[in-house]
Design brief:
- By secondary structure, the chain is an alpha+beta fold.
- The protein contains eight helices and four strands; from the N terminus they run βββαβααααααα.
- It is elongated and about 100 Å long.
Length: 299
């Protein structure tokens, strides 16, 4: 089933003397881009998280943040000690940012004390100089629940995408049939059109090789035939429907298929030689472009 690259999940947990909160979200991307915001005192956590996320996800720009605080009543817990110099520098930087935003007419949300504490160096390293192994183990044990919720949302978004893309494929199928009907009518009228054109040319020209001229007109008719384009459009429609039911990563396949859809629609318009067929071709391009926007969210 189709999986979306758009998703969000949040989770809170407690263990090993700490309380923590996860936040993970993603949008579409060409590959897998992981951006992690983690407490820097938990050694080895980032490497382990990147490995787990890479196994669970295939594509998307993924942002994961984690805030962890020591429980006040935990055994061996010590009051956090602030680094005054770093805290002053952080607050000064925040003030400069706010002044620049106001000058530009931009309104920013006020940072919380937790945001300030999360800045690197605000908490004295000595106050967190404990063995990070228990908290790292507890966090990694909690991670599968977060990823399960995250994948569930991406799957739900994918189901909605599936319905939208399927409906767009139905429109493309209908337009392809309309184009076929119009092309057939044009093909049936082609002999008479060619004879009329040939007669007009011969009336106004002297010394023209009638056989040669007839061959050229017939060749023009062949060049304007859109049968192959319509056949390829039907093949692309079937391939796209198969991708909607295929398990695993299909986004890149869809991306390539959309290029092929648009190629055939462009060729159909260039060879139409008919106002009605051109209109159908333009409608096809519109629906294909709309579908391409949806496909860009498929993992």
């Amino acid at each position: 089933m189709t999986v979306s690259m758009t998703g969000f999940a949040a989770r809170k947990g407690q263990g090993a003397g700490y309380t923590w909160a996860w936040d993970i979200r993603s949008v579409n991307g060409k590959g897998l881009d992981l951006r992690l915001r983690l407490p820097d005192w938990i050694d080895g956590l980032e490497l382990a998280l990147r490995a787990e996320l890479s196994r669970a996800l295939q594509r998307g720009n993924v942002s994961l943040s984690l805030k962890a605080t020591r429980d006040a009543g935990a055994e061996g817990a010590e009051p956090l000690r602030l680094n005054p110099a770093t805290l002053s520098a952080v607050l000064s930087a925040l003030a400069q940012i706010e002044d620049a935003a106001m000058a530009a007419g931009v309104t920013l949300g006020q940072p919380t004390s937790a945001d300030v504490l999360a800045a690197r160096g605000v908490i004295d390293a000595a106050s967190t100089d404990t063995d990070p192994t228990p908290i790292r183990t507890a966090l990694l044990a909690d991670l599968p629940g977060l990823l399960s919720d995250f994948r569930a949302m991406r799957a739900a978004e994918g189901a909605a995408l599936n319905s939208v893309i399927a409906a767009q494929l139905d429109k493309i199928t209908d337009l392809t049939q309309q184009a076929d009907t119009e092309a057939t009518a044009r093909r049936d009228a082609a002999p008479a059109t060619l004879r009329d054109a040939l007669t007009k040319v011969l009336v106004n020209a002297e010394g023209v090789d009638e056989t040669r001229l007839a061959q050229e007109l017939a060749l023009t008719a062949v060049k304007n035939d859109v049968t192959e384009e319509l056949d390829r459009l039907r093949a692309h429609i079937e391939a796209a429907r198969d991708l909607l039911t295929e398990a695993g990563q299909v986004g890149r396949k869809f991306d390539f298929l959309m290029q092929e859809f648009m190629r055939e629609a462009n060729t159909l318009c260039s060879k139409s030689q008919s106002l009605s067929l051109t209109r159908i071709g333009l409608d096809l391009k519109t629906v294909i472009d709309q579908m391409r926007e949806q496909v860009q969210n498929v993992e």
